Amino acid sequence: MQEQTLLIIKPDAIERHLAGKIIQKIEESGFEIGAIKKVVLTKKQAEAFYGVHRDKEFFSDLVEFMTSGPCIPMVVRGENAVHGIRELVGATDPEKAYENTIRALWGTTIRKNCVHASDCEKSAEKEICFFFDLCSIVI
Ligand code: GDP
């Protein structure tokens, strides 16, 4: 089934000039970019985006990291894109991620793991709307 999901290239990857490599990996894996932009999240925006983690001990660290530099959110689409992109991204901790996943290739720590990807269809819909107007997504 054709789906779309949200992927964010996080500040650590941008600082290390990995955006191009990550996009190439996504495209080579058969997915297409439907919309893309570069943003600097405010503290409030990062807190809202990661609201489900509000009670976790790493929440303030995560918000600090996500506001430490620009991010590149993008809508990615393709066959089973939600699950497929999560597979391509790999486990949260790069050390535990399968070989050849984005986080195994370029992630450095559980915090600096290069990318975010929506974890289910419902989150994908919500997270796409967080960053993009429907009219800015190329069909
Ligand atoms: P994801 O869906 O694989 O991104 O993982 P989660 O939704 O559980 O966590 C969101 C993000 O919070 C992760 O991608 C990491 O950047 C960060 N994070 C998760 N666990 C930890 C942790 O134990 N310590 C720190 N510092 N950051 C974490």
Reported for the largest beta sheet, the result is: 4 strands, antiparallel
CATH architecture: 2-Layer Sandwich
Ligand types: guanosine-5'-diphosphate
H-E string? EHHEHHEHHEH
Give a structural overview.
By secondary structure, the protein is α+β, with helices and mostly antiparallel strands. The chain has one domain: Nucleoside diphosphate kinase-like domain (Alpha-Beta Plaits, 2-Layer Sandwich). The protein has a four-stranded antiparallel β-sheet. The model has no long low-confidence stretch (mean pLDDT 96). The chain binds guanosine-5'-diphosphate. Guanosine-5'-diphosphate binds next to helix 4.
Question: What tags apply to this protein structure?
Answer:
binds guanosine-5'-diphosphate; alpha+beta; Alpha-Beta Plaits; four-stranded antiparallel β-sheet; 139 residues
Give a short synopsis of this structure:
The protein is α+β, with helices and mostly antiparallel strands and 139 residues long.
Annotate the secondary structure layout:
Blueprint: E1 2-9, H1 11-15, H2 19-28, E2 32-36, H3 43-49, H4 59-66, E3 72-79, H5 81-89, H6 102-106, E4 115-117, H7 121-131
Antiparallel strand pairs: 1-3, 1-4, 2-3
The chain binds guanosine-5'-diphosphate.
